Amino acid sequence: MFMKIIAIVASYIIGSIPTAFIFGKIFKGIDIRQHGSGNVGATNAFRVLGKNMGIIVFLIDILKGFVPVFFIAEIIAPLSNMYRLVIFAAAFSGHIWTCFLNFKGGKGMAVSLGALIALALRIDTLRLALLLAVVVWIAVFAIFKYVSLASISSSAIFPVILFIFKAPLEISIFGLLLCVFIIFKHKSNISRLLQGKELRVKSALK
Fold first, then answer.
1. What's the rounded Cα separation, in Å, for the pair 109 and 95?
2. What is the CA radius of gyration of the chain?
3. pLDDT digits over 134-188, tens only?
4. Which helix (H) or strand (E) holds 12?
């Protein structure tokens, strides 16, 4: 039990690493929270730090979800889906409420993607559901050029896909809760979308 608790705390700390904030400080000498949308996620890193650093931030944030679920959870409890989900939640919570920035972090899409990839490598029924959700994200983004709209759309469809493909009950419930929370975190983006004020990626990167 002690090792499980240590693993959960470690996963939270890994998730808490504020990648976009660190890159902003090191390479631009700025606090990214004071620029763009003020968010410390990969999308704002694209806007403020540029395409190349935005990609690096995005990939590191994916690893923040992947590493805890694929490695830490497998070392401590390799046969437990529930423990994988606990580790997932810890890393996700770290990104959303990072202890390094007064518990204010990003919106969780990249971290969730990394953790879901790790889960999909262990759980067969999750693979196709994740693939279809990613296809939805790409399609919506390609058509409308809004990262937020793509994220909201893929989040909304993901629990439905899990239900259709009869994923394990705990995965389906967790997926539903996760996606509801991600959509809630995008409430300001939804407001800007409705008002026609949300930045498209092309205009954001000029």
1. 10
2. 17
3. 999 999 999 999 999 999 999 999 999 999 998 999 999 999 999 999 999 999 9
4. helix 2-16
For residues 64 and 92, give the distance between their C-alpha atoms in angstroms, rounded to a whole number. 9
Residues ≥6 apart with Cβ < 8 Å to 124:
none
**What one-letter code names the amino acid at 51?**
K
Yes or no: say if 87 and 70 are a contact pair by the CB < 8 Å rule.
Answer: no
Query: Cα separation of 203 and 206, whole Å?
Result: 5
Q: Which among 22, 74, 167, 103 has a CA at the least distance from the CA of 178?
A: 167
**Residue listed under structure tokens 């991600």:** 182
Per-residue model confidence as pLDDT tens digits over 46-89: 989 999 999 999 999 999 999 999 999 999 998 899 999 999 99
Residue with tokens 């994988």: 84
Question: How many Cβ atoms from other residues are within 10 Å of residue 75's Cβ?
Answer: 9
